[in-house]
Each structure stands twice: as structure tokens, then as C-alpha cells.
Specification:
By secondary structure, the chain is of the alpha/beta class. The chain has 2 domains: 1-87, Putative sugar-binding, N-terminal domain (Rossmann fold), CATH 3.40.50; 116-216, Rossmann fold (3-Layer(aba) Sandwich). Helix content is 32%, strand content 21%. The protein has helices spanning 13-25, 39-42, 62-78, 101-112, 165-170, 182-185, 190-199, 212-215; strands at residues 6-10, 30-33, 50-54, 83-87, 117-120, 128-131, 134-139, 142-145, 177-180, 204-207. The protein has a 4-stranded parallel β-sheet with strand order 2-3-1-4, with helices on both faces. A 3-stranded parallel β-sheet has the order 5-10-9. A 3-stranded antiparallel β-sheet has the order 6-7-8, with no helix packed on it. Helix 3 (62-78) packs parallel to helix 4. The two termini are 26 Å apart.
Length: 216
């Protein structure tokens, strides 16, 4: 594919369609596949600047990911997009045994031969925010830390019992992680802070998202 801006894997169907909608509304022609297309089908969408693949990794085991997610990301890499995005829910619900975001990052780093991975969690449009590494979400017009959220803290499969996302992630991977927090992002030293984390060998860099401006 030529001039492809973005390729992405959505860890469930609704998240995959959300990305497609956001891209299209932003003026980026996008196609979403339910399975890896053959060359004949793919060639029909040469006008698209973003290509997505809807997956199921949110509800799968790390062992499943080792085979199926690795294969999906390897195919996305062949598209040579400027950016490849692994889309997770902005509630970040996951565990070491189901929907492991940590394992997904490990696989992505391996497939793309990339030392450091930026991690962006939050969707102000959905009233979900990260501030100083902690995740917050709204419920019935009130805002809760995710580990006190009336729904997500009681999720039947992957309850969120920790709002500090780097602590939560440390249960799923041994990769070194760090944070560029809200105050730093609003300062003139934000680029230097990011560069320092990379120089220190930080594998996962979480960026706070507390507004539409910080999301941009």
C-alpha cells in the first residue's frame, strides 16, 4: 500500500469500529476488515489511508495472543503504514490471563523491532481521562477513579482494582515503564522528558490524557 497513514488492530469489534468512525470523521478514508484480506480484496481499497483489522484479543489469553495476535501484527507491518496502532478500550480493563495489554505490547515490540512504545489511555469525548498516571471515568455524570468505578471495578472478567496504570500494567509484563504526566506535558520541557525516558531504556511510555488539547 502506498501513502498509508495508519494501520491498526482493534482488540474487539466495537473498538475497531470506533477507530474507523473517528478516522472517517477526521477526513481519513478508512477500511476495516474482519479477517486478513487477500491481495485481490485489499487492492480494491487503494484509496484508503488507514486500514484496520478487527480482532478479539480483549477476551483472549496470552497464549492465544502469541499465535494469533503476532500473526495479525506481522501482516499489518507489511502494509508499511507510518503508524501502527493497537487499540484497547479506554477503561483499560485487562488482566495477566485475559486481554493482557502487557503481553500485546511485548508482541508488538517484537514484531516491529521497536524498543519503546508510547501508551495513550483516555478518551475525553467519552469522559475518560488519565492524570498523573491514574485512570478516571464517568458514570451517571459523576467521575470515579477506575478502581472505584461502579461498573469497571466490578467487571465480571477483568475487574479494575488498580487505577495507577503502570502498576496495573506491571502485573502483565516485566517491561520497564514510565510516565510523562499532565504537568510535564503542559510545560516547555515535555520533549526533553520524553527523550530522557527513552535514553533511560524505558520500554513503555504512558502519556496523560486529561483534555482534548492533551489528546491532540
Amino acid at each position: 500500500m502506498q501513502n498509508l497513514l495508519l494501520s491498526y488492530y482493534g482488540d474487539d469489534l466495537t473498538g475497531s469500529t470506533d477507530v474507523m468512525e473517528a478516522l472517517e470523521l477526521g477526513g481519513v478514508p478508512t477500511v476495516l476488515f474482519m479477517r486478513q484480506p487477500d491481495e485481490a480484496l485489499l487492492s480494491q481499497f487503494g484509496h484508503c489511508r488507514a486500514i484496520g483489522l478487527a480482532g478479539t484479543s480483549r477476551s483472549e489469553t496470552p497464549q492465544w495472543m502469541d499465535t494469533h495476535l503476532r500473526g495479525a501484527l506481522a501482516w499489518l507491518r507489511t502494509l508499511n503504514a507510518e503508524i501502527c496502532h493497537y487499540k484497547v478500550c479506554s477503561t483499560f480493563d485487562s488482566s495477566p490471563t485475559i486481554g493482557s495489554i502487557g503481553r500485546a505490547i511485548e508482541i508488538g515490540r517484537s514484531v516491529f523491532s521497536q524498543d519503546s512504545v508510547p501508551l495513550v489511555v483516555g478518551a475525553p469525548q467519552l469522559k475518560r481521562y488519565t492524570a498523573f498516571g491514574h485512570l478516571f471515568a464517568a458514570y451517571r455524570d459523576k467521575y470515579y477513579r477506575i478502581d472505584r468505578h461502579p461498573v469497571m471495578s466490578r467487571h465480571p472478567t477483568t475487574p479494575m482494582d488498580e487505577s495507577d496504570l503502570l502498576i496495573h500494567l506491571s502485573r502483565q509484563t516485566d517491561l520497564a515503564s514510565g510516565l510523562v504526566d499532565l504537568a510535564t506535558l503542559q510545560s516547555a520541557s515535555r520533549s526533553e522528558a520524553f527523550d530522557r525516558l527513552l535514553a533511560d531504556g524505558t520500554n513503555i511510555v504512558l502519556l496523560d490524557i486529561a483534555s482534548l488539547e492533551s489528546q491532540a
